[in-house]
Amino acid sequence: EHIEGMAGHGLRTIGIAFSDAEDVEAVRQLEDAPPADMPMTFIAVLGIRDPPREEVPEAVRKCQQAGITVRMITGDNILTAKSISREIGILTDGCAIEGPDFRRMTPEGQKEVLRTMQVMARCSPQDKLTLVRRLKEMGEVVAVTGDGTNDAPALKEADVGLSMGITGTAVAQEASDIIIMDDNFSSIVKSVLWGRSVYDNIRRFLQFQLTVNVTALITCLAGAVTGFGTPLKPVQLLWVNLIMDTLGALALATELPTADMLLRKPYGRNDFLISGQMWRNILIQSAWQLFFCLGILYGSQAIGFYDCIPKGLYSGTGACMKLRPDGVGHDIDGNYRDAMIYNAFVWAQLF
């Protein structure tokens, strides 16, 4: 009763007992644990408390807010595990089970209980490995933390293994993908935030690049197959890729994370890198850019676009002439149509 009371308050219990020995040599002959039949006198039960860090409850709340299910897997007594998990916000409306009970279940039964399980007590390393495998079979993306050598199989099996940099063993660190240098759970929140930021930045860059390339490809293809030449020349496209796309990539790829990234659910295991919303944006952006580029290509003469060269500049006569439709660029007739298309294409990337 006393032990359960202590465990219910989050205390790890340890019993103290002694036995009389005839001489010192008899004590030396004992191994780490005395024989089971050795008479001993029980003295007391001590309750040891290892309080969680102050920042852990807030870190757990942020993970849950970000759509991450946090589970506690521990070797402690189930009463101790329940008390600590409630204190830090892990055990809310779910259930807590013990490792031996989980071990006796069928694979389908394990998957069913995992839907509501938030705490597993009296857990062995094999139970932890089985839990990771069952979650992956359910299509979940699994991250596991651990510091001991026995945690290595689960760290290796998980999609993301996180070991401790201070208390973690070399075996655990070798098996993991990420090493938490300060052994602080709140650092996991930072890694999630930066991971989402990098992923979103890659998506932004891909959307920008695909929009540029789709517009350039259709413009050149349309001009070539309809007899209007290639409005965008190789040197111009090279300039776009080396100068404009490089600066755009730097701007998009180095954008810092924001707190609202933790307010949405994580991407699924089978989600496409280019989402439907991205394809929508690419098509809309490409369409309005093509409207200007193809409009100048086909409508420059019909609409009445003129090229006016001041007198004396490039041997100009000071007269204004309509832009020719043959796409040969600037020549004695003063054709600047392709230059207008190129400028429209470049300025469209800025808006």
* Helix-residue proportion: 40-55%
Looking at the structure, the CATH topology of the largest domain is Calcium-transporting ATPase, transmembrane domain
Number of strands: 10
Order of helices and strands: HEHEHEHEHHEHEHEHEHHHEEH
CATH architecture assignment of the largest domain: Up-down Bundle
Determine and state the CATH class of the largest domain: Mainly Alpha
If you average the pLDDT, what whole number results? Answer: 84
Q: How would you name the CATH homologous superfamily of the largest domain? A: Calcium-transporting ATPase, transmembrane domain
Strand percent estimate: 5-15%
Number of domains: 3
Q: Main sheet: which strands, in order across?
A: 3-5-4
**Silhouette:** elongated
Pfam families: Cation_ATPase_C, Hydrolase
Membrane topology: Multi-pass membrane protein
EC number: 7.2.2.10
GO cellular component, one term: plasma membrane
Your description of this structure?
This protein is α/β, with parallel strands linked by helices and 351 residues long. The protein has 3 domains: 2-48, no CATH class; 56-190, 3-Layer(aba) Sandwich (Rossmann fold); 196-350, Calcium-transporting ATPase, transmembrane domain. The protein is built from 13 helices and 10 strands. It has a 3-stranded parallel sheet. Strands 6-7-8 form a 3-stranded parallel sheet. Strand 6 (143-146), helix 8 (152-157) and strand 7 form a beta-alpha-beta unit. The protein is elongated and about 115 Å long.
